[in-house]
Amino acid sequence: MDEKKAILSFSALSNETRLRILKQLVAAGSDGMSAGDIAQKVGATPSRASFHLSALDETGMVTSTRQSRQITYHVNFEAVGGLIKYLMEDCCQNNEVVRACCSTGC
Questions:
Q1: Cβ–Cβ < 8 Å for 14, 95
Q2: pLDDT tens digits, one per residue of 1-42
Q3: Residue whose C-alpha is closest to residue 39's, from 71, 12, 6
Q4: Predicted model pTM
Q5: Nearest to residue 85, comparing CAs of 67, 74, 98, 104?
Q6: Which site from 27, 31, 69, 70 is most exposed, i.e. has the minimal number of CB atoms within 10 Å?
């Protein structure tokens, strides 16, 4: 991951609704969720949830699949992992204290 992509991803996650959406999609796992279900879980209107899903899709952390009229959103675990890896290796230079917090909690 390059710096520009990391900044875009961190920017998207700095919004409370988007962070909640990402958490919901992580919990949903490979099943994913519809925009309506996501909206209900995060307390947003469906159109507002779609707006935020679009921003997350732009980062690559969220993907969607269409089946007829139904769109299902999924978390892209590889993209989220790439962001974490970027933070750990590039920004934190694999600092021992930071690594310990990730594996055992601080």
A1: no
A2: 899 999 999 999 999 999 999 999 999 999 999 999 999 999
A3: 71
A4: 0.86
A5: 98
A6: 69
